[in-house]
Amino acid sequence: MEKTNNTTNKNPLKGLLNYQWITKNIPFFLFLSVLAVAYIANGHLADRTMRKITSTTSELKELQYEYKTIKSEVMYRSEEEQVVKAAEPLGLKVVREMPQRLKAEK
Question: Which of 24, 52, 82, 103, by CA, is between 20 and 30 Å from 7?
Fold first, then answer.
């Protein structure tokens, strides 16, 4: 019995993964590497942007609360009763009389 060369039983991946095929496709592998690095960098940039947005939103809420607090305090202090109390130590009093009109002489 003779042994016959059976070329149909060869591993099809063996032909693809040889040195010449790899060297021929180096630019494609470099392109894929650059795409992978760009994809990872884009993910990190998106995460950093989301953290900045979150911190800015919380800071904005704090400033809104501070604004409302100060606004209510100013409104309270500008009431007539509070103004009178603040002016008493300075010796100022509310005048209860009607103001007098001055007539200009012609």
Answer: 24
CA distance 49 to 58: 14
What is the token pair recorded at 76? 């309270």
Which residue type does 106 have? K
Residue 74, both tokens: 């100013």
> For residue 30, which phi and psi values (nearest 5 degrees)?
-65, -40
pTM of this prediction exceeds 0.70: no
pLDDT tens, residue by residue, 40-91: 999 999 999 999 999 999 999 999 999 999 999 999 999 988 888 888 888 8
Encoded tokens for 51: 């953290």
